[in-house]
User: What shape does this take?
Amino acid sequence: MSRTSIDVNDLPYPDGDFYAFEELLSDKERSRLEEMRTWLTREVRPHAVTWWNQGSFPQELIPKVAELDPMSPVRRQGYSNLFAGMAHAEFSRADTSIATFLGVHDGLFTGSIEALASKEQQEEWLPDIYAMRKIGAFGLTEPLGGSDVAGGTRTTARRDGNSWVLNGAKRWIGNATFSDWVVVYARDLADDQVKGFLVDTTTPGYSATKIENKIALRTVENADIVLEDVVVPDDHHLAGANSFRDTNKVLKVTRLAVGWQAVGQQLAAFDVARRYAVEREQFGRPIASFQLVQQQLVQILGNAMSSMGMMVRLSQLEDAGRAKDEHSALAKAFTTARMRESVAAGRNVLGGNGIVADYEMAKIFADAEAVYSYEGTQEINTLVTGRAITGIAAFV
Assistant: This one.
């Protein structure tokens, strides 16, 4: 049986939505989600492995993404958080690297402007950001600061008249090799509070160097950023970014988005493993006819649906204004753990071909490791949840 003889649309549950969660969306949202899915199937998935193997971001894709207009679906376009989550899962299902590019530009960077900039700053900056004429990055993590960056930000900001002078370094900053702007979070030397600044990447003293030799999200151009006496005008200090508590307003929402990425990764693993299982023959019949292969496919689907169920409820809580930090923390911890199990099972189904990127699963398997790590590690998100249910903090 040839690898192209099965049309996934002819199989039961062609979209993998076993419990019909998409029916919770409005008719308008379902239509928009299908439009995005069709675009991703045409413009992203056929090229994703090539981009991943090359290890560079396809900047020529940006105008096409802009034409699709996925920016700020909740605040700007009036869609529900549930729709926004499902859309982000679809991007991840097609390619987690492209989803991460969008998550950085739209979620972390644009989210910082929407949540923390003044009305005047928003009016000046957001039109170019929404139209993707200006691409953004989010500078929080540092070479020596990850989970402890809230109380240990080493990058500094010093007020000098009508300007600020930034010094320090950031690491793992997605989009930073080609972004026009980056929001940099730095500790104010005067009051020891973390504040946010919009930095033009052409400013003297700013440099970004691509991190090479990654095994995950190879298409994403993460960078090491160095800031040496970078002068930022005071009107580029985000008016509402004056403590790490302010920064956390952005992270709570983007952590929710990473949970949806974990759903998308699992659906991608299900797509590839199911297709391979019904096409690949051993002992004269498709391997999908073997009990242990079916067990692994059902494990992937069960993990994906339990993760989606949690994310659907969390998105509903977000829509109702009731979602809390610990809700996002538990969701991120749970869904990414299930994701790790799912992509491992998917790799098993493909056997030796599961370690060859040409078959897609190797890329899905490797990319899951990045999703598992960013936006708070498994351990930190577990302890955030533990603090919420015991009232006792197990970390500083």
User: Anything to note?
Assistant: Strands lie at 136-139, 156-160, 163-173, 181-188, 194-200, 206-210, 223-233, 281-282, 285-286.
